[in-house]
């Protein structure tokens, strides 16, 4: 059973992937009181990722208590949210952003934490650099003061976002007090049709289970369609688990995982590699393991998916029309849809393909990896971004940027009329200069379409990189198949 002290018989009971990883990290199991209510378990943390937004008070707390960082060697920091993506050799103009970044630099220096600052070859969005450096590995517990930490679950790790007081706790002790999560299996079988990507799949999953559907659960994505996905695609899916309200998302490690990790700077090597793989091979849900909730999806029924509303669950196939709130039977959902459509300035019944955009954003920890840039570049090659549309291409890390440039993708984007930027969170959220103007509409490969997310009054449609590129060319929401050859 999950997280409890086990008898010999119980250790052989079938367990899920999440339960196995959890059990391996219990420092002290919570004790049950007379009513059966259990205290939280104390869980060991293998990797702690840090960025400028959620760390200042945590470091301040350590300072006030006279504490040091327990395991600086398991802690790594990067600058991502507040950094500009042009003129990065100049001081940051915005005083709030500048203070955040300078504070992180001072804290990392004082507490002896490795930091990848703006311009560094390994700098980038926190959820892109962990996997890229081989720091993210199967079977680990990974935390960061950032909700999209769920990304790292694509490697078979328990990876979750934590609040700033928990950041302080992990800095000080390398542990966290946690109550076990519920488990949900999302089994995706069948073939994804051509042109349908992991982004479409996760948007469809969230539309199906709802933004609260995963609450209290760790989601395990499994099934033949998941097994066929690349690591990049798996990360896109796990990244958005949080948008379904889940605590974390996971995918069991397999050969695809090992091929991605092998040779990366922090991946084990030599005999250690073989020993690690032998262990990682055990990190699969046992046959007969029980989940609290089960969801099944047939991948072959999916099409490109876009959001029309102001939460990631308000999405529909690109071929649909803007929904009519009057036809939504659930009162709460109908009201939410009505409010969203007013904000989005959309009329029920309008074909989604008729919705025109002012901007296209390709990037973020959801879709700012090399495969995402390749997918978009293959659509933009030999084509032009539509007149009046601004397209921003922002690699998720400096390493992704370099790889893209080595492959000539930057030239494709520039020739098409898109802007090629430095690495960072950029237009995913309005914490840096890359923002929408009020009323502007954007097709964005990021993960949140909340009101004002990309700038005050901005309107966001979440899409895949392929749909983003086709939309840039057509000036209206589109899939590559809609473009004339
Ligand atoms: C700033 C940070 C705390 C936030 C998060 O936790 O996710 C951000 O990364 C986001 O995507 O909204
Ligand atoms: S890219 Fe967006 S979602 Fe990801 S960490 Fe940055 S702000 Fe959060």
From TrEMBL:
CDD domains found in the cross-reference section: IPMI
Keyword tags: 4Fe-4S, Amino-acid biosynthesis, Branched-chain amino acid biosynthesis, Iron, Iron-sulfur, Leucine biosynthesis, Lyase, Metal-binding
UniProt: [4Fe-4S] cluster binding residues: 365, 425, 428
Name of the protein this chain belongs to: 3-isopropylmalate dehydratase large subunit
Subunit relationships: Heterodimer of LeuC and LeuD.
EC number: 4.2.1.33
Function field: Catalyzes the isomerization between 2-isopropylmalate and 3-isopropylmalate, via the formation of 2-isopropylmaleate.
PANTHER family according to UniProt: 3-ISOPROPYLMALATE DEHYDRATASE, HOMOACONITASE, MITOCHONDRIAL-RELATED
Keyword field contains Amino-acid biosynthesis: yes
UniProt catalytic activity: (2R,3S)-3-isopropylmalate = (2S)-2-isopropylmalate; (2S,3R)-3-hydroxybutane-1,2,3-tricarboxylate = 2-methyl-cis-aconitate + H2O
Pathway: Amino-acid biosynthesis; L-leucine biosynthesis; L-leucine from 3-methyl-2-oxobutanoate: step 2/4; Organic acid metabolism; propanoate degradation
Gene encoding the protein: leuC
Cofactor (UniProt): [4Fe-4S] cluster
Cofactor, free-text remark: Binds 1 [4Fe-4S] cluster per subunit.
